[in-house]
Amino acid sequence: MTELSHIRNFSIIAHIDHGKSTLADRFIQLCGGLTDREMAEQVLDSMDLERERGITIKAQSVTLRYKARDGEEYKLNLIDTPGHVDFSYEVSRSLFACEGALLVVDAGQGVEAQSVANCYTAIDQGLEVVPVLNKMDLPQAEPDRVSQEIEDVIGIEATEAVRCSAKNGEGVEDVLEELIRLVPPPQGDTEGPLQALIIDSWFDNYLGVVSLVRIRQGTLKQGDKILIKSTGRPWTAEKVGIFTPKPTETGELGTGEVGFIIAGIKDIHGAPVGDTITYQKTPDTEMVPGFKNVQPQVYAGLFPVSSEDYEAFRDALDKLTLNDASLFFEPENSDALGFGFRCGFLGMLHMEIVQERLEREYGIDLITTAPTVIYEVVTTDGELQEVSNPSYLPETASVEEMREPIVEASILVPQEYIGNVIALCEERRGVQTNMTFLSTQVQLTYELPMAEVVLDFFDRVKSASRGFASLDYHFKRFQASNLVKLDVLINGERVDALALIVHRDQAEYRGRAVIEKMKELIPRQMFDIAIQAAIGNHVIARSTVKALRKNVTAKCYGGDVSRKKKLLQKQKEGKKRMKSLGKVDVPQEAFLAVLRVDDK
Amino acid sequence: MTDTSRPPLSLYIHVPWCVRKCPYCDFNSHALTGDLPEGAYRHALLEDLQEDLGGVDNRPIDTVFIGGGTPSLMSADFYHCLFDGLREHLTLAPDAEITLEANPGTLEQGRFRGFREAGINRLSIGVQSFQASHLEVLGRIHDADAARRAMDEARAAGFERFNVDLMHGLPDQTVNDAIADLHTAMAHEPPHISWYQLTLEPNTAFYSAPPRLPDEETLAAIADAGAETLSGSGYRPYEVSAWSRDGDIARHNLNYWQFGDYLALGAGAHGKITFPNGDIRRYWKTRQPEAYLNRLGSRTAGQSTIEPSERPLEFLMNALRLTDGVEEALFEARTGVPLSSIQDELTALRQEGLLTPDRLQTTPMGQRYLDSILQRFLGD
Q1: CA gap B251, B99 in Å, rounded
Q2: Contact (CB<8Å) A553/B318
Q3: Do B318 and A556 touch (CB under 8 A)?
Q4: ipTM value for the complex
Q5: B274 CB near a chain A CB, below 8 Å?
Q6: Domains and their CATH numbers in chain A
């Protein structure tokens, strides 16, 4: 077992494209964790979707053995953190397992908002933050300016920050040396009763639940009779080991170490993230102060296109939640779409990933309704309701007040784009609460309605700043607001699945935009289709999809039949991906028209 | 007795050669290189007939259609001998309709008269358009003058019955262009006009490099104006694209649309046969002229049984094309499947105003959306 003084537990905080994965790969290579042949690119991002999107969603860890310049061998545990704002809660979780964090900043681009937020979290949790300037190989690298910015924005000493290029490997060893010098070794009573914090749990089809743990106290050995504190259930530690990054059984994990435990648990809820593991014989061992459960921020209805898929859909959601405790779902019944589930997500990216996994891995064709945040409604009889589905909004007459969630958003933007970003925030009903000029960037703080932020704000901020601005936000409070329910009617019928909650001042504009987009998306059919947007009984926008002129094959003779049949089949395949509302066939995309209004 | 219970039998003969391939054509046609192998092809067709005789079952041949390709490339003598050969194994009904597809670009002195003397009694003339620019886009080998002469020649050669094929919705075509084509054709008083909208079919030059077609409004205006023009001159539509005067309908095509049987001779020809045990089979001949001529293996390239579950769609794909549709009784007679199996769909379509109450017939609205109707009869 490694002496505590020779262990370092750390995370890397970095913006999505500032080179975190490349740097992690370099560490692994340097410490011989994988042969070059095994070294698939960016090994830490293991899920296919993550690899495709170039982001990290789940925390992962790797144990590295590094022979330092002082001649000693150190055990370095890197706990990876997600790089997207939707998953910021996962960051805090990973940081709980560490004594330090590397703040990796692109020496050409400077600090960005999400890293700032994560750094604050790290500092709050008592971690030592070690700044690293990456991408020094790029001609536009300005290390001095960026060091200054780190000091200005985050308030940590950065003039001596290590400079490296993960791409060509230069300075990577220096980073590890700095890490050993600055990050304190873990502490804890190696002889005390076991106290292991569950950093993450995931479901593996062959092994059952695998939990990533940080040993705070004592030792966890294979065969130990263990207890999950919150559930009180006893298990046996069947396998114990570390990731190198390949899972490698070591038989035990000592105080200060990070590794995995497999105990035959079949359900992820049996090993909740943030929970504590101890021995069955020491049930009174204290819980490690954990982290709070994360709440979904965005809700949407998901409905199978074919009602026959309902059961398969439920099973798929069950399976997904085995591995994704932040995914929430409950049955929902829509007049228009039938039986489905209202699902809660951490954000739009999370929603897209879940949707994609359901369609790709489970083969379920889905219709997703427009995502919405949670609103608070005070009824006239004084009751407070939470509404995450516009169609469940109480009657206007019985609504005393509606409140919407407000976030505090922090945006870092180069000075030349500040006008664009401010204009965007104003357009999104934002209220500026702070503006600080840094060396070349400006830090803007806004209070914004969450509904204006979750859908596409991040993309907008990016395009308003040629990709340079960065954003972080967190929920602040509920605030009374003049909100209305915007209904969409197709051929005079209100479609519950298309209802939206919008601010009164934006209702006309949003109504027109949604109607126009739906007109583009709904194919012409045998009859005219009237599409209307209405608030209550007041129609605020209307449009018509003109009837198809005709749909008939010009010629069909004896030898043509099988070819013509194939054409019909093809047309029908297209129709299968649509939902019939009354007589009208509506394509899946139309239910998300509200998200597409700005596409051109 | 079998005659009332078995569908009428037609014969389709395919001649696969063309002077050159038109960019819109998805039929089995091959540009001719070298001499036409008339004798060898006739020999191959008659040999091929042996593979089909099992499906004849004593039925007379009511109609013959010789399509292509460009069957008018073949000489009158070719047909004369071919029919003699066919008669040795088949009974041609005394009033059999025998149609030949004729390309105005193959018009030579006396050619049509020769066809008439060989026993062909109906011509289908592939005019497509009378406007030089459109003929060029369509890759036709004839000009407007040849098209007009072809119609005159047909009549002069003794063809009382002939059809003119015209296309509309051509690249850059205006309403006036389309109507002018109809008027030019009607001036020669053809008893039958097939007036098709140009469709970009897979596996054609137009499909891979689509020409710019008129917008949907123009297409609709052309269709409306054309229908009015044809009706105004005494033509009645009896099928989606087929117009005739004085009830002079194409009996051969009618047999297709009434789900009748047909033998298939020639490279790439398709046939359909109902067997006495109720099986219905489609089959097709090898497409490559060389392979067909040299009989590389069986000339029958493939066959498939039309399962009872597929028959309603296949029947309706054809029958509902007819303006008057068919009697309900014909459904079971031709498919062997009880009408009750599609009763729910029929009822729904009738309620939606797409089918008429007592026949298997589309309403005028149903005719316009025929493909949408047929999709309801597609299995999953």
Answers
A1: 10
A2: no
A3: yes
A4: 0.87
A5: no
A6: 4-182 (3.40.50.300), 195-279 (2.40.30.10), 298-369 (3.30.70.870), 376-481 (3.30.70.240), 485-595 (3.30.70.2570)
